[in-house]
Amino acid sequence: MSSKFWAELSNDYEKLFETEIGYDVIIYAGEESNIKEIHAHSNILCIRSIYFRTAFSNEWAEKKDGKFILRKPNISPNFLNIILRFIYCGNIELENLQGPDVLKLLVAVDELNIQSLISHIQEYLIEHQTEFLHQNPTGILETVYQHETFTDLWEFYLEKICKEPKILLESDEFINLKASLLELLLKSDDLNADEIEIWESLLKWCFAQLSMNNDPKKWNKEDITKIKGSLSRFISLIRFYNIKPEDFFYKVYCYKDILPQDLINDLLEFHIVPNMKPKTNNITPLRKSSLSFKLDSRLIDSEYIPLFASWIDKKDSSNYDKKMIPYEFKLLYRSGQNGFNATSFHRNCDNKGATIWVAKIQGSTQLIGGYNPLDWNGNCGWKSTADSFLFNFTDMKNTSTAKLGYVNIKDCAVSCYNDRGPSMGNLVCLNSNKWTYLSGTHYPNIDIISGNFTIEDFEIFQVIRK
Prior knowledge:
Elements: H1 6-19, E1 25-29, E2 36-40, H2 42-48, H3 50-57, E3 62-64, E4 67-72, H4 77-89, H5 99-111, H6 115-128, H7 130-135, H8 137-145, H9 151-163, H10 166-169, H11 179-186, H12 195-210, H13 221-231, H14 245-252, H15 261-272, H16 304-312, E5 327-334, H17 335-338, H18 342-349, E6 355-361, E7 367-372, E8 381-383, E9 389-393, E10 402-406, E11 414-416, E12 427-429, E13 434-437, E14 451-465
Parallel strand pairs: 1-4
Antiparallel strand pairs: 1-2, 3-4, 5-14, 6-7, 6-14, 7-9, 8-11, 9-10, 12-13, 13-14
C-alpha cells in the first residue's frame, strides 16, 4: 500500500529552491539597473520544462566552472522567481498581481513554454481580471494575437468584440490596430454591427494610417492611389449589399474613386433597378449576429428573436434573418427587478398592446413563454384571439429544443385578472412566483411541467412592428 505526501514533497522542493543547495544554474534576469542573479538546479528545470531541457542539451547556455549561465533580460526577476517557484513545487499565487503584470507574466511563461501554466493564467485573467481586459482592448488583443498559445484569451476577445464591436471600433487605439488583425476581425460573420458602421470604421483606420484628409474633394491622383492600396485587402470583406440605399448614397458612393469600378456599377444597378438581385461574384452573406435593436434581457439572447418574429407571423418554411426582423422587442417588466406580484406586472404591461413573455422554471433547464397579440388590461376574464401561442425550450441554452403550440380554443386564449400575472389557457401565473399548468385542450401539449411549479425569473417584452 502506497502513501502520498504531496504537500510535504512540494514544500521540500520549495525549500530547495529557496536555499539553493547544490545549484548548478545561474540566470541573470532583467536588464540595466534591475538585473538579478537567480540560482536553480538543471535537473529539475529539465524535467519540468522543455525550454530548459532544450537550452541545456543544445548548449544555448554558456557553461562556466561547472554551472550553466543563462541571460533573460526580457523577463523581470520577480516574474522569473514566480515561474521557477511553480516549476519546483507546482504552486503559484496571482492574487497579488495587477492585471497588466499578470499579462506580462503570461508572456514570460509563453517564452519558457510551460503549457500548463499558460492555460492556468489565461483562465485566471478571464475569470478574475475582466475589467482589466476591457481597459485597452486594442493593445491587449494585439498581444494575444502575437502568441499562438493564448487560444483561450483569443476566443474570449473575439467573442466579446463580435458581440460588442464598439468596444474596439470606438476605442482611441483602434486606428493603431495592425492590418492583419483588422482583416481577421472583418472576416467574422458574427461581428454584431451595422455594415455601414464597419465601413466607416475601416475608412477611419485607413485615413489615420496614411495621415490623410477624409474629404474626397481634397484628394489628388496620388492620394487616391495610396488609399486604394491601403484598402485593397479589405474591400471584399465589406458586405456592401447589406448597406441601406441612403447610407450607400451618402456614405459609400462619395468614395467611388477608391472602390473598384465594377463594384460601384453593380451596387448602383442593385439600388436603382427594381427587383435587381446582387451580382453573385460580389455578394457576401449577412453577418449573423446583427439585430436592429438592443435586446435587454437576462434570460434570452439574440438567437431567440428570429424564432419569435417568425412564430408571430406564422412563417412555416423558414425563420426571419436577423437583419429582416419586422419587430422590435422592448422590455416592459422583469420580475427580479420589478417584483414578483400582479400589481407590478399590470402597472408595467397593461395597455401596451402585443407582448411576448419568457419565464425560467426553477430547478430545471426549461424556458417557457407565450405570445399575447392583444393586451393584459382589464379584470375581465377570458379574451379571444386565434393568434396567441405558448412555447417551451426544454434546454434554454439550445433554441433547437423549442416546442410551439398555437391556441386551439380561441375564446380561452388569454386570461386577464388584476390578481394574476400573464395567464394563457391552462397556464396560470398566480400573484407571486408560483405558477400552475394543467394540460388540456386550450393549447397543444408542448411538455410544460404539469402541476404547480416555481418561476426563478420572467420577463415581458412589448412587440413593436417597425
